[in-house]
């Protein structure tokens, strides 16, 4: 009973991913991704498309695309997939480097905060290219500045130039790469996220961390607000964003086959 009340209170204050409130520790991480995805879905020209969400876990971004695509497919490790998925989602067990999907059968591939965790990011991008139809969209995000998370599977960070080269190396035409916030928002995210995910408390339960997160929501809100004010006053120069979001298109490889 007490736990249910606490969970409801936590959802009211923090929001439910991906619609986190300013009081959440990852507000400056998730909110820009939601805004970018909402903008990107306008580039999907009809609702008879097949979308593949790679490494989606509990599929928090399903709500954004559910009315835009005909089919929503998720690929992730079995332990990451919900056991009782009641939404109209097709679940497949697999990894980003070896997708259990037919070649050239997908219209949109979604890859949010995944490439930093895979063993081989180049193979993961190559696999996304393989399953996409010609002209298909590759949409996603990667961290630039972020505390270590999901240990021990946190292997890399990305710059604008590294991400652009990675996509272009596999014949994607980059339509847009957007930095999420400036250095002050990145600092706010680093402080709140590091505090919440601190490895110094490995023995603490997730419930304890959630309780602490809720109990100090005003501190999170103040830090996040200062990040917004700092970027507003000093300018958002996009040199030190927390994340980069991208949208790219699979080019016709019959004219210029590189891989």
Name the descriptors.
259 residues, alpha/beta, 7-stranded mixed beta sheet, two-stranded antiparallel sheet, 21% strand, globular
How would you sum up this structure, described in words?
The chain is 36% helix and 21% strand. The radius of gyration is 19 Å and the shape is globular. The longest helix has 18 residues, at 217-234. Strands 5-4-3-6-7-9-8 form a seven-stranded mixed sheet, sandwiched between helices. Strands 1-2 form a two-stranded antiparallel sheet. By secondary structure, it is an alpha/beta fold. The protein has eight helices and nine strands.
How are the SSEs placed, and which strands pair?
Layout: H1 2-14, E1 15-16, E2 19-20, H2 27-40, E3 50-54, H3 62-65, E4 71-76, E5 90-93, E6 106-112, H4 121-131, E7 132-143, H5 160-169, E8 172-179, H6 183-196, H7 206-215, H8 217-234, E9 243-250
Parallel strand pairs: 3-4, 3-6, 4-5, 6-7
Antiparallel strand pairs: 1-2, 7-9, 8-9
Helix pairs in contact: 6-8
Sketch the topology as an H/E string, one letter per element. Answer: HEEHEHEEEHEHEHHHE
What integer is the average pLDDT? 89
Q: Termini separation (Å)?
A: 57 Å
Strand arrangement within the widest β-sheet reads 5-4-3-6-7-9-8
Low-confidence segments, given as residue ranges, are: none
Give the overall silhouette: globular
* Radius of gyration from CA coordinates: 19 Å
């Amino acid at each position: 009973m007490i736990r249910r009340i606490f969970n409801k209170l936590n959802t009211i204050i923090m929001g439910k991913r991906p619609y986190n409130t300013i009081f959440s520790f990852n507000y400056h991480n998730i909110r820009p991704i939601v805004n970018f995805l909402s903008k990107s879905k306008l580039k999907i020209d009809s609702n008879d498309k097949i979308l593949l969400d790679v490494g989606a876990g509990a599929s928090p971004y399903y709500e954004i695309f559910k009315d835009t695509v005909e089919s929503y497919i998720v690929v992730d490790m079995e332990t990451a997939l919900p056991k009782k998925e009641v939404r109209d989602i097709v679940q497949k067990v697999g990894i980003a480097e070896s997708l259990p999907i037919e070649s050239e059968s997908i219209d949109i591939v979604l890859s949010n905060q995944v490439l930093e965790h895979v063993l081989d990011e180049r193979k993961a991008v190559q696999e996304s290219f393989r399953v996409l139809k010609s002209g298909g969209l590759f949409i996603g995000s990667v961290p630039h500045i972020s505390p270590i998370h999901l240990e021990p599977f946190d292997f890399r960070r990305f710059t604008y130039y590294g991400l652009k080269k990675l996509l272009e190396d596999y014949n994607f035409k980059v339509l847009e790469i957007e930095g999420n916030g400036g250095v002050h928002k990145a600092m706010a995210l680093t402080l709140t996220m590091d505090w919440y995910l601190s490895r110094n408390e490995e023995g603490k339960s997730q419930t304890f961390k959630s309780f602490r997160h809720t109990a100090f929501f005003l501190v999170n809100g103040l830090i996040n607000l200062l990040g917004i004010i700092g970027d507003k006053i000093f300018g958002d120069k996009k040199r030190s964003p927390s994340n980069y979001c991208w949208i790219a298109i699979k080019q016709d490889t019959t004219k210029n086959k590189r891989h």
